Amino acid sequence: MRSFADGDGDGVGDIAGLEARIPHLVDLGVDAVWINPWYPSPLADGGYDISDHRAVDPTFGTVADAERLVGALHRAGLRVLLDIVPNHTSSTHPWFRAAVADGPGSASRERFVFRTGRGVHGELPPNNWRSQFGGSAWTRIVEPDGRLGQWYLHLFAPQQPDLNWHHLDVRVDFDATLRFWFDRGVDGFRVDVAHGLFKDSGLRDVEDSRDAAHPHWDREEVHEVYRSWRRVADAYDPPRVFLGEVVTGTPSRTARYVRDDELHMAFNFDFLEAPWRADDLRAAIISTLGSLAEVGAPATWVLSNHDVMRHASRMARDQDLVDGHNLVDLLDLPSDPELGWRRARAAVLLLLGLPGVACVYQGEELGLPEVEDLPADVLLDPSWERSGGTDPGRDGCRVPIPWSGDRTPFGFSQEGVPPPPLPQPSWWRSLTVQAQRCDPSSMLSLYTAALRIRRAHPALGDGDLEWMAEAPPDVVDFRRPPGLRVVVNLGATPVALPDGRPVLASCPLDADGRLPSDAAAWLECDDAPVSDGQVPNEDA
Ligand code: NOJ
Asked: Which atom of ligand 1 is nearest to the CA of 305?
């Protein structure tokens, strides 16, 4: 939300800005919106440090504004998902303030994970767990008597103390949060760190494992929480939904979160993390679909989000050398932006051609690259500080959207108001929504056409996927019955297309009608329904 559109002229995206841009979302053709945390937060981690889950930060608006936005989105035919962050709160949350103030052994400390340190004077952290943002996952507090005392657990930043999910208050409070927003019409939640929440009560040291016995990820106890949340969601009419951010290391462990009485969907990060290589993509798709088939859940595909380097920039690197999907992993590899752009065009036809749910991260429809050279003094991501200035973090994918005009802030806010905290590059003038809308060769036109076809074509969205056995190794080639073929050429040379009518392609075919390297096409083929006007032409 912070980087989408600023409606009140303070340089920060907000509810009014999003509401004013609903027509863009409708034109683009998405059918739901996921809004990152808009709750009161000191912003130690981009709003994922929350001091009150049942309020809206004044920077964005009020709860009344939120309700108005939900109504406006619904009237436009869009559903709305909020973020819920159950693993931790902000250190400014009243519960944590009470826990610090009430001292060791108090009931309020039980809602978090406080422990006495190791060492003669408790001067060492209770175990070897590491924060996701670098450094120890424990911080020692100053007790009310002024002396150094207990340590508390934070798997993320020190300003994000982990909650104790064995405590009844925590469960009751999150149920109240679900109901608070469901009662206001919200259609569901994206669940932050859904594989977190529970910790091994022995707090044993982490050995290098990512299996069911891991002491702080993917523990069995978490499934009962999602079963109970599902009962809350199912009691609404229409039932509300959950989309989990589930990171377990294997598709089969992730699939356990979307069994039919738990969450509805979970992001398939294997696909996002796969290099742009046919084998890797095929393997990610096959293992994801196979695991999900066992539990009867839909796949949820995603190429980019607010936590990873934008894929147009990831794909601009030599894919045999990429190791990781964050700016820090790829910064030193030479980049070919035109190649990244071309691959990003092909990638969206793959993404939207797959069976299940597809998520688009704001700005990818404009082909926005990662901003790799943000000055150090504007960086907000805690990774920058926690890494001692070696990891620039995730700000490069969070730079505000360029909407219109020739000069920054490109319609994100009005001119003359405070500039957005993360500056847009001046050359983004050619990437604005306004510049791309009327250009049939733009990324925006491709996304719009693909989403429109996906909505109308009976083969796309839910359904089956059949691999084409005769496909060359560098070509990802599958059929979506009835009658749609998805062909992605990841090889170095053009490939002949199968028989069929090209419905949409990521770039022009060559003079011999072949699909060039790093390109994708959708074709209507043999068992296609006779076109009855439902599927628009490329120029529709
Ligand atoms: C995942 C969120 O997507 C990310 O932005 C955040 O830093 C962590 N969870 C911690 O809440």
From this structure: 3
Predicted pLDDT of residue 207: 83
Say how far apart CA 217 and CA 209 lie, in whole Å: 10
Q: Quote the ligand 1 centre to 203 CA distance (angstroms).
A: 22
Check if the beta carbon of residue 310 is closer than 8 Å to that of residue 396: yes
Residue nearest to atom 3 of ligand 1 (CA): 307
Name 304's Cβ contacts closer than 8 Å, sequence gap at least 6: 272, 310, 311, 361, 364, 397
Going across the sheet that includes 79-84, the strands are 32-35, 79-84, 188-191, 241-244, 265-266
pTM for this structure? 0.95
Q: Which protein residues touch ligand 1 with a CB less than 6 Å away?
A: 45-46, 48, 85, 156, 192-193, 245, 306-307
Whether the per-residue pLDDT at 378 is higher than 50: the answer is yes
* Nearest by Cα to 513 from 540, 535, 487, 484: 487
Q: How far is the CA of 48 from the centre of ligand 1 (A)?
A: 6
* Cα–ligand 1 centroid distance for 49 (angstroms): 9
Half-sphere exposure (Cβ direction) of 456: Cα atoms closer than 13 Å: 17
Q: 250-297 pLDDT, tens per residue?
A: 999 999 999 999 999 999 999 999 999 999 999 999 999 999 999 999
